[in-house]
Structure formats: C-alpha cells, structure tokens
Amino acid sequence: MVTGSRREMLGAMGAGMMLASTRSSSAVRPGGKIGYAIVGLGYYATRQIMPNFTGCDHARIVALVSGTPAKLEQYGTEYGIPRTHRYSYADFDRIRDNPDIDAVYIVLPNSMHAEYSIRAAQAGKHVMCEKPMATSVKECEAMIAACRKAGKKLMIGYRSRFEPYNRLAIELARGGHVGPTRMITAEHGFPIKPDQWRLDRPLSGGGSMMDIGIYSLNATRYLTGEEPVEVSAIESTDRSDPRFKTVEDRISFLLRFPSGIVANCISSYSSGHNRYRIAGTQGWIEMEPATSYTGQTMMIRRDNATTPRTVPVPTKNQFAGQLDHLAECILRDETPIVAGEEGLADLRVIEAIYKSAAERTSIRINA
Ligand code: NAD
To answer: How far away, in angstroms, is 117 Cα from ligand 1 center?
Structure first.
C-alpha cells in the first residue's frame, strides 16, 4: 500500500546521507545551510515560504528584499535578519557583495520575475523563481541564458513536485497502475477578488491561465512525462466585469500528447476547482484537492472497486522539500528536477493556448 512513498522516503534518506558526506564550501556556513534572500514580502513569501524554512535541513533565510521599509523591519526582526542583510529594490544589486547569500527566491508579480532573476544571476546568485516563470517564452529563454552564463542554478517554484500525493500520482500514472493513461482531466480555478496585480496585465502577463490554469497544464505534463504536440482552446470572459478589463477569466483547453493521451483542462478566475483525474484502460486515479497547500486526497478505481489511497504524513512538507531541493542541487552541483526548462515548457504551451483561443483554431506545438 505504501510502496511508492516508502521508496520515496528511502530515496530522500539516501540523498540526505550522500549530502552529509559531500564536502562543499557551505560546510563552513552555520549549519552547513544554503542562504536564501527572499525577494518580495507579499502573501506567498511571508505566509507560506518563510515559515517553512524551519522544516529545512539545508536551507535558511539570510536576507530580505522589499520596497517597504516597514516590512523589512517587521520580518527582519521576526527572522533575525541584520540590517546589513535587508535590501530595497534599488539596492538589489548589492547582494553581489554579500557572501552569506547563495540563492534568491523571487516571489514578485509575474512580469518582474525575468528582470530580478537575471539581475540575481548577474550578481552571482542561484535563483529560485515562482511560477509562472515569466510572462513570455522570450523572457524564459533570457533567464535560462543568464543563469547558464553565470554558472548558477535556476529552479521554478513548482511545489507539487515535492508533495507526496502528487509524487505518488506520477509514479502510478506513468507506471500503468490503472493501465496505460488514455485521458486526463485537470481543473484549477478560484473566484478572484478585485483590485490586485493579478488582474493588471502589465504585471501579471495574463489572467487565470498564467496564475492557476498553469497548475492544470503542469500536472498533465508531469503525469504523462510527455510534451503536448497540439492544443485547442476556448476562452470565455465577461469584459463588463470590472475584474476582467485586461485579463481573461476562463479558458478551457485540450492537449494532445505524442503517445495519443488527450488532456481536457480548465482554468478559471470565477469558479473554484482543484482536481485532476487520470483515466487508464483499467480504471482511474483521482486527486481532489490535487495541488493545494495541504489536504490532498486520492481515490483509485481498479478491479471494480473504488478505494481511497493514503500516504503517511511526510516529515518534510512540499515547501521545505522545494527549498531543500535547490539547496541540495547547489551543494551537489546537480540540476533541479524543475529547472528553468520546465517553466519554459509551460510558457511555450501557454502561448499556444492563447493563440488557439484568439484564432479559434487548434495549434501544433514543438512542430
Ligand atoms: P502578493 O501581491 O501577495 O505579493 C507580491 C509582492 O510583490 C508584494 O510584497 C508587493 O509589495 C511586491 N511588489 C513589488 N513591486 C510590485 C509592483 N509593482 N506591484 C505589485 N506588487 C509589487 O502576491 P503573491 O500571492 O505573494 O504572489 C507573488 C508570486 O508568487 C506570483 O508570481 C505568484 O504567481 C506566486 N505564487 C505562487 C504560489 C504557489 O503556490 N507556488 C502561491 C501564491 C503565489
């Protein structure tokens, strides 16, 4: 019953033991931990990411970057960050001179991801960047090139890849637990509140698709291990709704993968969704919620029976797992499982989705 998760736990233990025996420059740092600068002190950074450093074995917060002095004071005090390690956006490039900072975590509005990731790489720092990686393929390519040139790691904040139910779903789906996958349905959405940067195209780069629909898309890619070759999308947006003056509300999109798998996906800013279902020739695997911060549940239909599947609560949650993964990749000079190329692959499909919806025709991708 817990074979998958036990294997994952053993894998993680093995990685930890390897790390302990790896000589690296960070061995001289306090606790041998990689130091992160958090860039942008908004909701996700302060409520989800920063509190979860306590669960990390290889990562710690060493610096903060914000445009609001009161936030630097509040969180600087709370996390014991000295004034010398607190930066404004104007000061950002001075992180170059701070040897305690190994990596930055960009948690800014989407259209700022590329600029700050590139500046961080140029300052000699590794980069963790939130999803969506950027607002265009061109920006993603520039970020990858900048990090490569600087010899620095680039990882995208796809936290579900460190969440045990999603990891199990990948293993079961790709391993044919319910037969070869034929169809995937993936739905993500929430009714968005007005008056925020997510609804301002110059800052967000797009509407629900960039923000929450990307979870549907990314799930179809990690559950299949394939890249879609064709997309067909329909958008529906009430432009008289003050929230949707510059960005889209709902997009429904179909993806076809090289093996023939078809995925039927939903992205919405006006209805609540968080689920996916993998339908194979001999049953299905369903997750709801699928990609939330906590509370994932999995049901499996196989051999004429529908049963819940549980995974033991991990010692490290998805946030700490994600932060430690980049740290381990830095320490061991390895490539993150969700490197910049992963974010680029999503943006490539998102651009095709927007094109398909605008032109009302199906679009071939990577052709
Ligand atoms: P937020 O609005 O709460 O925080 C954004 C921060 O950026 C704020 O501190 C704000 O002051 C700062 N900022 C700097 N310049 C700004 C400008 N010109 N306009 C607006 N804000 C500016 O947003 P958030 O929810 O924390 O999202 C930040 C990033 O994190 C986004 O890219 C989002 O997609 C991502 N995110 C990821 C997850 C996840 O589960 N992986 C969850 C939430 C958000």
So the answer is: 14
